[in-house]
């Protein structure tokens, strides 16, 4: 591909990259040495490039071309808006210029998000749980899934007849994947999360994808985890846990040692020398309550207990009984602070 107007890309911002068809294709996985070299040669553009790339991947996780109706009609309107914005105008203050630029960017992203939402909603089945709710379901291919609280699973259409079975997870779920077969052999089952793709044939495993962390626990069978951005891949065997954090995107593997990570399936919290920071995350994920520490050192306190998830009051009383702390609640925020000495 010839980029005769190479210089124009030096002026591009996030919203400009979003609307460039060549960039869209590269962001969705097509090889294009131009964009690799452009990003390497111009580090000042990397933030805009990466932001646009991530938005495209999130808006179109299937990595398929946009629906033609959307591409020709709705994007045409977006292009028209941008062209109008580029026409000579009366001089504005710096505040006004930035305001209108970012306002236009927001409109563009909202239009894209809404279009993809309706496109995907019409073709995908979605299951979602609220706080303090779990749900067990069976997909059309026979795969059994248990969704933990505050989780969302999106399932590709006609799952039983697809050459690759795909689902998208936000939150936590336990999978017992059916070894669905066809004349060509077993078909892959892929769980997509924000940071990892989990590929299996038939197995039992747990996936947890919350905010800045994704974790995969393999109970039986075998799976391959893959990081879409770095292309790093790793094979797992039963009894192993793989984790990845958003701050470095590195895949880490360990053997299960100190906890029973699947206690949630029995509606139980099972903490074994877990830091109060980990306990706080569990409370937030299940009850939707934010937990704050008046002193950061409190977050490192080690806590051991096995408690029903139906009894938050008991859990909190065990924490206050184990340490010299008090817990106060305002709205949906719990604050853990050191006990005042009399």
Automatic annotation (TrEMBL):
Record key words, sorted: Membrane, Transmembrane, Transmembrane helix
Location of the FecR protein domain: 127-224
Protein name: FecR domain-containing protein
Membrane-crossing residue ranges in chain numbering: 99-119
Domain Protein FecR C-terminal: 269-336
MF-aspect GO terms: sigma factor antagonist activity
Domain of life the protein comes from: Bacteria
Keyword Ribosomal protein in record: no
InterPro entries documented for this protein: FecR (IPR006860), FecR_C (IPR032508), Ferrdict_sens_TM (IPR012373)
Pfam families, sorted: FecR, FecR_C
